[in-house]
Amino acid sequence: MTLSDFLLSLVPLTPEELQDITSYFNQENIPKNTTLIVEGDISKKFYFMEKGMGRSYYLKSDGKEITQWFFGSGKFMSSVDSFFQQSPSLYYLETLEESIVYSISKTDMDELFAKYHKMEQLGRLASIEMLTKVVNKLNAIQFQTAKERYEYMLEEFPDISYRVPLGHIASYLGMTQETLSRIRKK
To answer: How do residues 118-163 score in pLDDT, each as one tens digit?
Structure first.
């Protein structure tokens, strides 16, 4: 999904508004396994993933990576709290595949929010979608079996097993790789 298609799927924009809004975004071709944000840094960009796959993760005290979220094509990708509050990120953000993204700075995003009421509406709708997904993931971890969590993830990311290392998937689901392997065999 292109950035224009995504924006139009959330709010009705005139061709002039769409052209102006998309002019604030910069296209970037980012290689596979590129770190975009490091824990402790302040997120300077908000990304729209046109093509590729990314993830956010944190490091446990023993150095083990725990995947917080995956970002596929047609979705925004960021350390949201760091970007909007301009505070140090708790997470790392990286691409898992060669990716085409559109980035926007906090200053430019704020300018668009001030310039277009429809952008405020878009921000609200995108925030609600992200919050709903976070709540659904928390509910899945708290109330679902490992198998149910895996099935839920496949609904969200149908081809993830072919695109992402199993260790990342297992940590995202809150299970060991051995448990994930057993579930996949069934």
So the answer is: 999 988 888 888 888 888 888 888 898 999 999 988 988 889 988 9
CA distance 116 to 113: 6
Give the global pTM: 0.89
The amino acid occupying position 87 is: S
Distance between CA atoms of 140 and 169, rounded to whole angstroms? 14
Does 10 reside within a domain? yes
Reduced 3-state DSSP string for 15-32: HHHHHHHHCCCEEEEECC
Strands annotated E in 129-181:
none
The answer to whether residue 63 is domain-embedded is yes
CATH (domain of 8): 2.60.120.10
